[in-house]
Amino acid sequence: MAYDYINDGNIDADALQKGIKGNKKARMLQLLKMLNEETDENHPLSTNEIIAKMKELGLEVNRKTVKDDVDLLIAFGYDVVIIKSSNNSFYMGERNFELSELKMMVDAISASKIISTKASNSLIEKLQHLCSKYQAEELLWNRDINISIKPYSKNVNLIIDKLTKAIGKKRRVNFKYNEYNINKELQPRHDGKVYDISPYFLVWNEDHYYLVGNEYSTKTTKTFRIDRIDGSSLVVSKEQAVRKPERDLLSKYSQRTFSMMADEKNERTVVLRCKNNLITIMVDRFGVDVDTKIVDKNHFDLTAKLYVTKGFFSWLAKFGDDIKVISPPQVANDYKEYLEKILMQYK
């Protein structure tokens, strides 16, 4: 089919507009666009308003064509709600996302420490197209609240894209890893060491995004914050990545670690004696299937495999005397030493 508005691959805007004015299919597409962008439960468009807007676009419509087009959209599965009256009104009802769902996504993007301000604004603008223009305004009220905590890495999207492709192609990645020095200046860790990693997955944890993978030189699982990976040095290698562990590694890793920088060699089976008021917190943290046993009317024991790190001890400390390490003895002793070192600073 030849299109008069396309010449050598270029679109002639004037010719395109003329083609639209005389095209019945364009009328249907314009109605769908109008309902999506300009209507919702609180902002319906009447038949007369639709006719007026269509005429402004050079499209000839009448009450019958509006009704027929709406009926056709409904037949094709669009949830166009009709408000019956002498001048019927219409609005787009159910959409792919509820306003509350879009709001949660916008708030999560705004609060994210991994997504730059520019990238956040771009993502939010895309989400705004999934609701009416009136609802789109409601999505923006707290967009800039967390602007001060946005990341220093400006190419996070490119880093995530490369890592995702490497995971899909089962290829290793090489990169340098940044950290701050005492002067708050970014510098490569370990004198510019280049890490050789078989990427397992990307995981969101405690407001940060991490890469979890196997380091080729040490054959151990390592974790890296995405926004600290040096994007300029990130390369997808031709080398085959090592085989991923079992499918449920992600859920196990998330439950067992209290710091995403945990090392799997520190995994231990730990028994914690908790006061009963902590049961909801423990279920939220470890899942409803966590192993628990009632000890007496005031306490229960919780048994779980954990990565024993300073992050774990820090988590324990916030519960004070509501929780006690029962076993293994070495973990209990290490926790005691951790607390003693803190107390020494106040003597």
From TrEMBL:
Keywords: DNA-binding. InterPro entries: CBASS_pafABC_assoc_protein, WH_DNA-bd_sf, WYL_dom. Residues 160-230 form the WYL domain. The keyword DNA-binding applies. The keyword Phosphoprotein does not apply. One of its GO terms (molecular function) is DNA binding. This is Predicted DNA-binding transcriptional regulator YafY, contains an HTH and WYL domains. The lineage of its organism: Bacteria, Bacillati, Bacillota, Negativicutes, Selenomonadales.
